[in-house]
Design a protein that fits this description.
This protein is mainly β. The protein is 14% helix and 40% strand. The chain has 1 helix and 5 strands. A 5-stranded antiparallel beta sheet has the order 1-2-3-5-4, with helices on one face.
C-alpha cells in the first residue's frame, strides 16, 4: 500500500479510501464508527450477486476497521 499504488485518497467523515492500481479499494474506518462492519455484513449477504464487489479482506488493526473490496469500475467522479 505504498505511494506508488495509491491513486486516490479521499476522506469522508472518518473513512479514508485508497484505490490501488490492482482495482482494489482499501477502506480504513475508525473502530467506533461501525461503517465498515455494516458494509462487510451486507456484502457477505449479497456475495456472488451481480453488481456487488467481492470482499478480499476485513479485519481490525490499531483502532481501525479495514475493509478491502474489489473495484467494479470507475467512480461516478471519474
Amino acid at each position: 500500500m505504498g505511494d506508488e499504488n495509491r491513486i486516490e485518497n479521499e476522506k469522508r467523515q472518518f473513512t479514508i479510501v485508497y484505490r490501488s492500481k490492482t482495482k482494489t479499494f482499501f477502506l480504513f474506518d475508525r473502530f467506533d464508527s461501525k461503517s465498515n462492519r455494516y458494509q462487510f455484513k451486507i456484502y457477505n449477504i449479497l456475495r456472488g450477486a451481480r453488481g456487488f464487489p467481492r470482499v478480499d479482506f476485513y479485519g481490525s488493526e490499531n483502532n481501525f476497521d479495514i475493509l478491502v473490496i474489489e473495484s467494479l469500475g470507475p467512480s461516478l467522479e471519474d
